[in-house]
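Try this one yourself first.
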């Protein structure tokens, strides 16, 4: 015959759940925070190291005097994504602030391309330094749909650079490709 154990005896035998060991939990959280801080510090050091490797790149040109009086061929507002070594879409150039993403306002005239970046350093690309413009989908880790980026290739200090822009109105990209390529062909024609 089975005996039924009274419920109060079963309840007395049960143990409570373990109390959380707060010291171990705090140690794990502190260890995780230190690890995250270390990773960010290493990323920052890598960025600075890349900048020192690219220190041979000359200072960027400033907007020339009287540029605002020139006849404007095109303007664009949008985003500046990055600059890379031409043909190397992942080789970001960080020297002189070229690796900093920002809003941008582009102005193209016969003298060149003025890049105004609020919150980052502005620069000017003279018309004789422009090489080509094209539509692409990726630059410096930024991947967009086909034709989502306007890539302007230009020469600076013996280095060919690809700079990536995205207009607020992507339909403007083709007009920019046509205008920059036309400007480079007329500049090459007058240089000969």
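Now uncover the answer:
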């Amino acid at each position: 015959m089975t005996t039924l154990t009274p419920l109060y005896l079963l309840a007395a035998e049960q143990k409570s759940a373990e109390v959380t060991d707060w010291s171990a939990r705090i140690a794990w959280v502190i260890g995780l925070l230190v690890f995250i801080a270390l990773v960010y510090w290493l990323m920052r050091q890598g960025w600075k190291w890349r900048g020192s490797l690219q220190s041979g790149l000359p200072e960027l040109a400033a907007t020339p005097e009287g540029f605002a009086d020139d006849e404007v061929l095109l303007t664009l507002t949008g985003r500046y994504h990055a600059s890379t070594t031409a043909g190397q879409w992942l080789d970001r150039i960080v020297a002189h602030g070229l690796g900093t993403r920002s809003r941008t306002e582009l102005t193209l005239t016969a003298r060149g391309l003025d890049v105004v970046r609020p919150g980052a350093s502005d620069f000017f690309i003279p018309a004789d330094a422009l090489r080509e413009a094209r539509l692409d989908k990726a630059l410096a880790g930024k991947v967009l749909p086909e034709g989502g980026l306007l890539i302007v290739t230009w020469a600076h200090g013996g280095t060919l650079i690809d700079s990536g822009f995205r207009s607020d109105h992507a339909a403007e990209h083709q007009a920019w490709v046509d205008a920059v390529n036309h400007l480079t062909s007329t500049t090459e024609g007058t240089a000969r």
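Discussion: Helices lie at 7-13, 22-53, 173-191. The chain has three helices and nine strands.
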